[in-house]
Every structure is written in structure tokens, then in C-alpha cells.
Write a structure and sequence with these properties.
Elongation Factor Tu (Ef-tu), domain 3, about 25% helix, Rossmann fold, five-stranded parallel sheet, about 260 residues, 2 domains, alpha/beta, globular
């Protein structure tokens, strides 16, 4: 699907963004509100090489009524040898969900790689403290996969009853998930109440969070200013804006929350 990229595409080109075309090979409904689409990578994984990292996302381009839309999606189970990966879509009413609902083998979608990154925390944390929701589940899973021996506590905001069936890659021996129904500030309130007892030494703690922009900013400020975590021990991204299309581009519809 060739889509004009407008001024955003021009800016990304000036920033040396690399363009690729992905081809759909299949799709499956994980739940009634969550869909996984499989792709061949159009040369992406070979091009990024050793830069491939956990939580890696790319910008995809979708047609809108008046202008092109870009949305950011995390690579799920990238296989450089096979040149394949998947995207997972938390379904709602936006253009990306509409595309995902009808995606079929042979369909194509354009994408740009620019802006993604991940710094492995050093020293290694004794426990991962992770805050997310269905939009950031692929990134949460990639993080858990990348630290297979590290205990983790995950606060996971849910919206639909079917979210209980989402494939969170939990190791019962090491991982604990605390589900929080979406209700205003409930997620932020729960984290503020429960996270401090798990932090330990702020200089070696590590918190990764990616939810709606307002919650991400609120919690990032709390972690740094009130709990005293150093900047490099907090990795926060606003993945979507409340009242706008869910799963909006990380770094496009919302800036990286407080760095």
C-alpha cells in the first residue's frame, strides 16, 4: 500500500530515516479486541543488523481522509534469518485498527525506521519494574524476553474483559502481574501506592513505562522527583493520547515523555 508521507515524511528523510515495504503473510485474532498480523520485512532486519533491540518500533504509514497518518508499532518476534516479524494491534476505532482488521496475505504497508533506541541498564537491575497496557504489550514482552533471569513486577492497565487473555509472557517463577482496570488515574494511583516498596536503591532500580501520554508524564515526574531515580534508570514513552486514536505513534503523536 503506497501512501504519501506528507511533511512528516520529508522531515524523516532529512533525519536519514530508512523506508521499507512490508508484505502481509497472515493474521490472527488473539482476542476480540487484539489482532496479530505477520509480515515479511522487505529487508528491514538485515539493514538494522546488530542495531536490533528489545522494544524496537517502526513508523508505518496509513491513508487518512485528508492526510497520511503515521503510527508506531513494536516488532514482535523478529527473525533476521527468515526476514519476518509481526505487529500486534489493540483494536479500536482508528485508521490503524481498520487496516489491521482486514489485512490479508499479499497486502503491503510502507514503514520508516528512525528514532527508535534502547539502552541496556547498567548496572543490571535486580528487578524490572514495568508499567504498560495492551498498546505497549509487544514492547513489554520483548523486555521480559531480553531479561529472562530477572524478576519483574508488571502493572498492566486493562480496558476490555478480553484483556485477561492477552499473551503476556510471564514466567510464574519470576514475574508478577498486577492488573489495573482503566479508570481515570487508577493506574498512576496504584503505581504510586505500590512501587516504592520495590525500588530499593534508586541508583540501581530500573523502571520501564509506556502507556498514555498523561499517565507516562505523571509517573515519570513522580519517579524522578519524588522517588529520586536517576534519569538513566527510568525509560518512559507516551504511546497514545487519551481521547485520540489508541496506540498513536510513540515519538509522533506523543513525544518521549520527559526524555
Amino acid at each position: 500500500m503506497a501512501v504519501g508521507k506528507g511533511w512528516e515524511g520529508v522531515v524523516l528523510k532529512l533525519l536519514r530515516g530508512k523506508d521499507f515495504t512490508f508484505t502481509v503473510t497472515g493474521a490472527q485474532d488473539v482476542t476480540a479486541d487484539y489482532r496479530r498480523v505477520h509480515f515479511t520485512d522487505g529487508g528491514l532486519l538485515a539493514a538494522v543488523g546488530e542495531s536490533l533491540h528489545p522494544t524496537m518500533w517502526v513508523r508505518v504509514w496509513l491513508e487518512g481522509a485528508a492526510r497520511p497518518h503515521q503510527r508506531a508499532y513494536t516488532l514482535v518476534d523478529p527473525d533476521p534469518r527468515a526476514g519476518t516479524f509481526s505487529f500486534e494491534f489493540a483494536l479500536h476505532g482508528g485508521v490503524a485498527s481498520a487496516w489491521a482488521r482486514t489485512a490479508a496475505p499479499g497486502d503491503t504497508i510502507d514503514a520508516t525506521v528512525q528514532g527508535t533506541g534502547f539502552t541496556t541498564p547498567a548496572p543490571a537491575p535486580e528487578r524490572l519494574l514495568v508499567i504498560g497496557d495492551p498498546a505497549s504489550l509487544p514492547a513489554v514482552n520483548s523486555l521480559l524476553d531480553s531479561f529472562p533471569r530477572t524478576p519483574a513486577t508488571i502493572w498492566f492497565e486493562t480496558q476490555h474483559a478480553s484483556d485477561a487473555d492477552l499473551p503476556v509472557r510471564l514466567d510464574p517463577a519470576r514475574h508478577e502481574i498486577r492488573r489495573v482496570p482503566r479508570d481515570g488515574t487508577a493506574l498512576a494511583d496504584r503505581v504510586r501506592a505500590e512501587l516504592p516498596e520495590l525500588v530499593g536503591d534508586p541508583s540501581s532500580a530500573y523502571v520501564w513505562l509506556a502507556c498514555d501520554t498523561a499517565t507516562t508524564r505523571t509517573l515519570t515526574s513522580y519517579l524522578r522527583k519524588e522517588l529520586g531515580l536517576p534519569k538513566q534508570r527510568v525509560n518512559g514513552l507516551g504511546y497514545w493520547r487519551a481521547g485520540a486514536e489508541a496506540a498513536a505513534a510513540a515519538g509522533a503523536a506523543s513525544a518521549k515523555a520527559e526524555g
